[in-house]
Predict the 3D structure of the following.
Amino acid sequence: DKITLAHIGVGTEGLRELPPLLLSPEIQVVAVCDPNKYAGEYRDWSRDGIRNSMRRLLGKPDWTAGPGDPIPGGRDAAQNIVETYYANARGADKYKGCAAYADFRELLEKEKDINAVKVMTPDHLHGVVCMAAMRKGKHAIVHKPIANRLEEAHTTIETARQTGVSTHFMPWDANGSMDQVMAWINGGAIGKLREVHNWTNRPVWPQFPSIPTSAPPVPNGFDWDLWLGPEAMRPYHPDYTHMTFRGWYDFGGGSMADMGHYSLWTVFDALELSGPTIIDPMFSHDCVLRNGVSTTIRNDFSFPTASAVRFRYPAKGARPQIDLIWYDGGIRPPLPEEVEELPLEGMMFVGDKGKILCGFHVNNPWLLSEKKPPEPPRERRDQNELSSGLKQWIAACKGAKQQSPGAFVNAWPISEAVNLYAVALRTRKRLAYDPASRQVTNFAEANKYLTREYRDGWAPKAS
């Protein structure tokens, strides 16, 4: 009666996502997987946040992830959490324990009875793991992005379509409603929509303007080769891994992949945005002194500290051409005359006759030509409660024909955008893009960044 699930990726974000699954009577976590065995090297947004939430979940005020009370993470901690919780909560069910693996491929080969996987690895492994699982008939949940290469994202989505398994792309659950904004746009309140602006305060993790040169030893219990997965071999360094992987083109997707899925997916759906024809990057740079001479770093390995990237979407039906501009690193759009300050994160729709200002998730929309309405009380879902999207995913796993609106097959337009954002920043050039061929037409060199050179044994297998 339960969906048997393997949780692949149990670093800090992976552990943060465990409690709702453990608390659900419809799911049984039967295996965990991570190349890292022990806690001890993890970074997080809070020193004690995950530890304290696990103590509450397990009813053990002295629980720790290991000697020295480190920030929790790793497969030993995850296995312990799962087994401790189920032993307490489901002891009468003759609970048999939770398996633990370093390699997801071994897990998929040996755990014959799993129904589903949840993928919480670093970004560069999302597509590879999801495709391997779906091609074995496993239902799948994944954190953002679906993949950090455009072609891999496309193949992952097509694999979901071909296999027909139930899928759920987690950031859908954070997207707000476009109903009020669309009512104003369709009613002519701001004239013809011309621009959509979305900005975030990310990155809120360290980003590095140079490739690490030191060579610390690989931590005990950490399989560096498995962590690299499809990416090229290089010396281990902790600045590539926990938390900070987001800032490297090889391993992460940058601030837009980190946050844009949460805000823009519903915007893409409502405005039918897909297939941008121009992607125009603006970005910060770093300088160093070399022999007393100031030199700008030519950086094609890590995302800039701050950027603004403009996407031009051609007219479609009655909708005119739209420019969508993404900002990160503290950059925000020009301040409208109607307000004195913009929030650190937000969204704005600009027409030829007016503007709509919203919160980051399209919440609390305000037509700037009118008096600002009072903000409604914030509705918060219990962090340990399954989202509506995951509930629909569960129903589809059990045979319901209707998949979650956050299914992989609905995520191409936003996946296309976040990957083109990375390519434009990496090449530092305005790109002309042909959506039909999924190729950059004005700068052939950029097309190598739309895919990756897979290490032997890591290329996705044909369906």
